[in-house]
UniProtKB/TrEMBL annotation:
Organism: Kitasatospora saccharophila
Superkingdom in the source lineage: Bacteria
Ranges of residues in domain VOC: 2-123
SUPFAM superfamilies assigned to the protein according to its UniProt record, in alphabetical order: Glyoxalase/Bleomycin resistance protein/Dihydroxybiphenyl dioxygenase
Name of the protein described by the UniProt record: VOC domain-containing protein
Listed Gene3D superfamilies: 3.30.720.110, 3.30.720.120
């Protein structure tokens, strides 16, 4: 099987607020939209983020009122500290400050206006040097 594209679809209250957050702070761009729907792409993310307004009739009845809770939207970046500093300078609240895990993961989190947790990860060798695993979102960081 060949997969041509990947996307994550999130049900949110305010599609425009999440779309503006991802566009303004992470460089996503609108590729498609309609009432209660937007698909955002990014040149280096390798996937689209689709935002659907809760209650939309196109959603299966059992899923219409669900919210994207318990989900972490994670992106690998080349420099997590620089990305965190850039987002702080732009006024984005850091909801989990930068930390280094013993298994070689440097990460921090922010939360978008709809409560979507966005995590930025930089992979390190045990000595702290970059391994160079993907650049992902934050190329401007």
């Amino acid at each position: 099987m060949k997969i041509n594209r990947s996307a994550v679809s999130l049900n949110v209250e305010d599609v425009a607020a999440s779309a503006a957050f991802l566009s303004t702070h992470l460089g996503f761009r609108e590729e498609m939209s309609a009432d209660g729907f937007v698909s955002l792409g990014h040149p280096s993310a390798g996937m689209n983020v689709v935002l659907l307004r809760r209650g939309l009739e196109v959603l299966p009845e059992g899923l219409r009122e669900q919210h994207a809770a318990g989900l972490i939207l994670a992106f690998t970046v080349g420099d997590a500290a620089a990305t965190e500093a850039r987002l702080k300078a732009a006024g984005v609240a850091i909801t989990m400050p930068l930390l280094d895990e013993p298994w070689g993961e440097r990460l921090f989190q922010v939360t978008d206006p709809n409560g979507i947790v966005v995590q930025f990860v930089q992979w390190l060798t045990p000595e702290g040097a970059e391994q160079g695993i993907g650049e992902g979102v934050g190329a401007q960081a």
